[in-house]
Amino acid sequence: MVPLDFESFIHRIEAHPQLQGVGLRTVYQKGEYIFKQGEICQKVFCMHNGLVKLYYNTQDGKEWIKSFVLDQGVLGSRSSQLMGKPSPFSALCLEKTEVQSYPYKRFAEVCLDDHDLVRDLFNFLQWLGVKKEIREYQLLCLSAEDAYKDFLHTNPKLVERLTQVDIAHYLGITPIALSRIKKRLT
Amino acid sequence: MVPLDFESFIHRIEAHPQLQGVGLRTVYQKGEYIFKQGEICQKVFCMHNGLVKLYYNTQDGKEWIKSFVLDQGVLGSRSSQLMGKPSPFSALCLEKTEVQSYPYKRFAEVCLDDHDLVRDLFNFLQWLGVKKEIREYQLLCLSAEDAYKDFLHTNPKLVERLTQVDIAHYLGITPIALSRIKKRLT
DNA sequence: CCCACGCGTTAACCCAGGTTTATTTCAATG
DNA sequence: CATTGAAATAAACCTGGGTTAACGCGTGGG
Prior knowledge:
The first copy, chain A, is an alpha+beta fold and about 190 residues long. Helices cover about 45% and strands about 25% of the residues of chain A. The interface between A and B is medium-sized, with 32 and 32 residues.
């Protein structure tokens, strides 16, 4: 069941007869936003390639990174999709990124009415749940040093394409603290 | 869509013709485990009343609490259900708790094959996703003090039924640190 | 070619929270 | 009624990470 084959999942979505002509292909350049914190964005984005960071800006001017989406993936703001509320985080492209977007409600209806697609969607939600459970475990149970080692080990390809600032803000520490950890580990 | 009506959701599950006689009713007393960290538990538990804590024991002998489930809810170990792996956390009853358990695979099949139930399940997974997103935000972006204030505000009924030790371990700090925070807030 | 800027690193200082130990209270049990 | 043990608090000390500031490096634009 898990792991998920995004390639096939996204292909089946895009091939679905009831979604023909509904999707919108967009190419974002490095530095462009898919959506910004505070905006209401009721789309779902099927990502084909690229690198996106989802992050929060706090009141005291800090940035903390919720997650990265690399190459294939599905993303959006649940708060906006489900409740029509402003997104609590932004989606910023760190590299050129190609996505296909659908109105969320239509997307969900089509998936729920399709015997096969609903299974794909269900698998995706379960896969995402496992991912988020691991993330929760790291934030709750691991020291910054252990979380960093874990991140290096689990995401070697991602690490190469990120700055130390972004890695630190994903781990919940400052880049200075990360620099100290790296020094400690040598 | 969100918030979720657990009462109706669980009722529809238990009333489903293909789940008749499949579920097992169990009453756990305070201090009893529904499942333990390290065990493989491929059931899903529909909780009717009670209070459960889901928590990790780390190698260095510490306990960190993933979440609480109060009164109505659905719980289980995704790692076990989906991948047949040992559960990374335990489910311990803090009060007398009544649950109805189903083999996960059967439960999922029945839900996915039922036009209405699959919508309930989908809503539940989305609701859970929103919950977990908020939890991630608290662990990533908030100080212990702010997370505590947030917890008090969002879970007033839960707070009354928990010890300070458990609240602290949910927040990711020691009970001593929580005691200091409480002192600071007066 | 030079300048500005973002990135990574280092150092000095500060603070929130961890660790250890001890005391008090209170509820459960013998 | 006495004993035990868990919970909460407190004090003293330690430590990892935050803050601020400075410096070197590479890169891209003027």
